[in-house]
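Z., the sequence and structure:
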Amino acid sequence: MPRMDQVCGRGPNKRMTEQDIALRVRQIVSEVFSLPVEILTPESSPTTIEGWDSVGQLNLIIALEQEFHVQFSPDDVEKMVDVQGVVGALRGLGMGKEGGDGWLGGDSAQRG
């Protein structure tokens, strides 16, 4: 798995934008659930992704915590009802607040 700075074209001391985070979240969801990244949308959720059950959720959380070097609280996990909710939970931990325009051109700054 490539490092975040390789994926985002940023050095190790650069802060990721929300757009960078959204892209990396899509890649991680794609890897965890063995799906092409192109089919994922902000609304992709357990309803639309086969395998996103309780075990899938745990696998996703572990992958995200390892990649972003964070630890989610139970409240954070409750927000992860879809892909955009994952981005929002990371934003709530202080990631991606500078720059970027949300979900690759979307309105994620209004969600949370």
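Confidence is low (pLDDT under 50) at residues 1-13, 99-112. Residues 26 and 84 are 9 Å apart (CA to CA).

Let me know what you think.
H.
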